[in-house]
Design goal:
The protein has 158 residues and is an alpha/beta fold. It has a single domain, classed as Glycogen Phosphorylase B (Rossmann fold, 3-Layer(aba) Sandwich). The chain is 40% helix and 21% strand. Helix 2 links the parallel strand 2 and strand 3. The protein starts with a strand and ends with a helix.
Length: 158
């Protein structure tokens, strides 16, 4: 039986809620059924080695925080080639994954929304700008999942 290819794209792998949940998901997923990779837009962080120890391939694009690169985009595109599902974690990775999937033959794109506030005093301007862009293109995404009802409401308001 052919394993389903899943690539998780996350902004980074340092200590945080999304990173912890990704690790827990990968720890318990059936690796006989799924062929899994993780793409970190930045570096290994805290979880990179832990995820590798689970038998999951981790690709680091080594982009600077908030600054996507064409080299990183091309590298990531090569790693999602012939993938069945791309699941992204957090706004920056959502937008990055959306653009990657538009230029690839990925069957399904799943976004992960995790913020319960988009108030300007609590978020960077770039995060708010990307959330606004994502709100406009979200109808073109196959599935949007949210860890909180509040996060879902905030995204809908946007």
């Amino acid at each position: 039986m052919k394993r389903v290819g899943i690539v998780h794209i996350i902004t980074g792998l340092n200590m945080g809620g999304a990173e912890t949940m990704l690790y827990k998901l990968l720890k318990h997923i059936d690796k006989e059924q799924y062929d899994i990779k993780v793409i970190s837009m930045m570096d290994d962080g805290v979880y990179g080695e832990k995820i590798r120890n689970l038998g999951v391939k981790v690709i680091c694009l080594n982009m600077k925080q908030g600054i996507p690169s064409l080299k990183g985009f091309i590298k990531a595109r090569g790693h999602i080639k012939n993938t069945d599902i791309v699941q992204t974690w957090m706004y920056h990775a959502d937008l990055f994954g959306y653009l990657l999937c538009r230029f690839s033959n990925v069957k399904k794109l799943i976004w992960g929304i995790r913020r319960s506030s988009l108030e300007s005093k609590l978020n960077k301007k770039t995060t708010i700008a990307i959330a606004k862009i994502n709100a406009r293109i979200s109808k073109r995404v196959d599935v949007v999942v949210s860890c909180l009802i509040k996060a879902k409401e905030v995204q809908r308001e946007f």
